[in-house]
Design a protein that fits this description.
The chain has a domain of 152 residues. 19% of the residues lie in helices and 33% in strands. It contains nine helices and 37 strands. It starts with 21 loop residues before the first helix and ends in a 12-residue tail after the last strand. 47% of the residues are buried.
């Protein structure tokens, strides 16, 4: 395929420039299925991202090679057009919205520009070269320029980008406009002591921080008795979930240039108090806002912000009791400033995401500091540093209190593997090494199966490993050993925590909700019913409550035969990665745009605190 007009080797007039087009047409024809089909065939996987990102770059490189060495265009014209392509492409970076700079231009601008390049030459074969050349400049400008009209509102778990016109008000801007006129009308008191009550939900993933709820049953027939909405309202962006204590909801959100720890009335959604720090965190994939969930303990709220501010607040009033900067206390800030290669960032790429844990009056958080300061433990009463431990510098996980071989210990998943730490002394008891590859980060919590076995999951391409722990002697200081039982790449949980039930694991692998056997580590089934999301096990009832990435809530029977959905309803709008909360017959859900409360009812007594 190419132009057929006569060619004069002595120096053709502009109208006689021939272009050999068939190699470029082939490159463009391959570019789109190569970069886009993986999003259909393997959504939410590392391979999908590689095809999308590197496919666009390789295709662009191939077009440039064709133009320079196989297009048959005179060299002067080749160099002029190539220079124009580069200048316009680089120039488009400056007016482009900050969320689309960099990889946004690569995955959107490059494919559009190379396609426009080839298509224009194809349809303009009978025009004078001066017209074709001017058309190429216009095509480059339009192909790169359209991106400047948009911003990225976020990217979902399948790497699909939410593009919005940049002049359209964001959900955060709409919230701030409404919040300015909102009047506090909470019915719970903002003075006096706040105490944990039976049936409360004191922090991340529930009473035991494992997304398993005991002692609670809910009606599972939503056809005849659907959940009843109690309230719904806009909320500031963030990926925090809720703590529910004594009629109060505690969460974190971004409010413009301030990071907020907020107390809402659980019955009405009205704001009771807000604590503000002058800091803002935002990145393109997840958007703005803090990531960790507040923790309640002994009348206080502990919350870690995305930039490392650890706050201890009075649960009734929001008054500050103490505050620490974990980037300073861990030495992470100093190490980042001293490292010219920036292998260790002062604030992780996607912010600090640890939800504080209080055990025996010690508050622990992941900080990722060097030299044995991966996890920090603070005295809950004063905020003074009690200990530091561990070697991992990269993680979006939280410490988790677990009992293995009769010994209480803190577990933390990091780039190094999984580490066990004595909750009071801060001593490392054991560590199972499973180093992540560069660019991969562990996000989900370890899943404890028994007093000897646990699961460590890693998304994108590493998979899941079952680990066996043995302990000799009666003291925590006695010897510990660990060994791998199996590792599978068939189940790759990324940011979606999983739950174990009757010999099987239920959770998300990429964009599939799946069931895997604990003994043979084989996938029993997987289904695209929910995209991505989070799940909660009602253990006594044998039901999974699934909150999908699109804001749907479903009840699922955890069976290894197939996905058996019992019922479903639409709860909220917008990308939903936050964990669901169930307390006192109420379901609380939120995302980066809105929050809502639904009456789901109960069929039996409340959950036992601390079970």
């Amino acid at each position: 395929m190419g132009d057929t007009t006569p060619f004069d080797p002595k120096g053709p007039p502009e109208c006689d420039v021939r272009v050999r087009l068939w190699p470029a047409v082939l490159i463009v024809a391959l570019q789109w299925p190569v970069t886009r089909l993986p999003g259909v065939l393997m959504p939410g996987t590392y391979e999908q991202f590689q095809f999308l990102f590197f496919g666009a770059m390789i295709a662009a490189g191939a077009i440039l090679l064709w133009w320079l060495f196989a297009s048959r265009v005179p060299w002067k014209q080749r160099l002029l057009i190539l220079a124009a392509f580069i200048v316009i492409g680089i120039g488009s970076v400056f007016p482009t919205h900050s969320t689309l700079k960099g990889f946004g231009i690569i995955i959107y601008g490059l494919p559009a520009a190379t396609t426009a390049w080839v298509l224009w030459l194809l349809i303009s074969r009978n025009l004078a070269w001066s017209v074709r050349r001017a058309g190429l400049l216009a095509a480059f400008g339009l192909a790169f320029g359209w991106i400047t009209l948009f911003r990225i509102e976020g990217i979902n778990g399948s790497f699909a980008v939410d593009l919005r016109p940049r002049w359209q008000a964001s959900a955060e801007e709409q919230f701030l406009a409404e919040a300015a006129a909102r009047k506090p009308a909470g019915s719970v008191p903002t003075t006096g002591a706040v105490a944990l009550q039976s049936g409360d939900w004191p922090g991340f993933r529930g009473p035991s921080r494992d997304s398993r709820l005991f002692g609670v049953r809910i009606p599972a027939d939503w056809t005849t008795k659907p959940p009843r909405q109690i309230w719904r309202q806009r909320i500031g962006p963030g990926w925090s979930s809720f703590a529910v204590v004594a009629g109060r909801l505690y969460t974190q959100e971004q409010r413009g240039q301030q990071e907020a720890v907020v107390c809402y009335d659980a019955a009405t959604g009205a704001e009771c108090w807000v604590h503000l720090d002058d800091t803002r965190f935002i990145e393109t994939v997840s958007g703005a806002g803090p990531r960790g969930t507040p923790t309640f303990d002994a009348g206080r709220i502990y919350a870690l912000g995305a930039r490392g501010a650890l706050n201890c607040l009075d649960a009734a009033t929001g008054e500050s009791i103490w505050k620490r900067d974990i980037t300073v206390d861990s030495g992470r800030a100093a190490a980042a400033k001293a490292d010219p290669t920036k292998s260790l960032l002062e604030v992780p790429m996607w912010g600090f995401a640890s939800s504080p844990l209080v055990v025996n009056s010690i508050v622990s958080v992941f900080a990722g500091g060097p030299d044995g300061k991966s996890v920090l433990g603070y005295h809950a009463s004063s905020g003074e540093l009690a200990w530091s431990a561990g070697q991992g510098t990269d993680s979006y996980c939280s410490t988790q209190l677990s009992r293995l071989s009769g010994v209480d210990q803190l577990l933390i998943s990091t780039d190094a593997g999984i580490t066990s730490i004595h909750p009071v002394q801060g001593k490392v008891l054991w560590q199972h090494t499973w180093q992540t590859e560069k660019g991969l980060t562990r996000i989900i919590q370890p899943t404890v199966l028994s007093e000897t076995d646990l699961l460590l999951g890693t998304g994108l391409k590493m998979g899941t490993r079952r680990i066996h722990i043995e302990h000799e002697g009666n003291s925590a200081d006695d010897a510990w050993t660990d060994r791998e039982i199996w590792t599978t790449v068939d189940f790759k949980p990324y940011f979606n925590d999983m739950v174990a039930y009757k010999g099987h694991i239920f959770g998300f692998t990429g964009a599939f909700f799946a069931c895997i056997g604990l003994d043979d580590h084989r996938i029993k089934w997987k289904d695209r019913a929910y995209g991505n999301g989070q799940s909660l096990l009602l253990a006594d009832q044998g039901i999974l409550l699934v909150l999908s990435e699109k804001g749907d809530v479903a009840l699922v029977e955890p069976t290894p035969e197939r996905l058996k959905e019992l019922c479903r309803f639409k709860a909220i709008e917008g990308k939903t990665w936050n964990h669901p909360v169930l307390a006192h017959g109420k379901l609380y859900v939120r995302n980066g745009e809105e929050a809502a409360c639904f009456e789901v009812g109960t069929d039996s007594g409340p959950v036992a605190i601390g079970r």
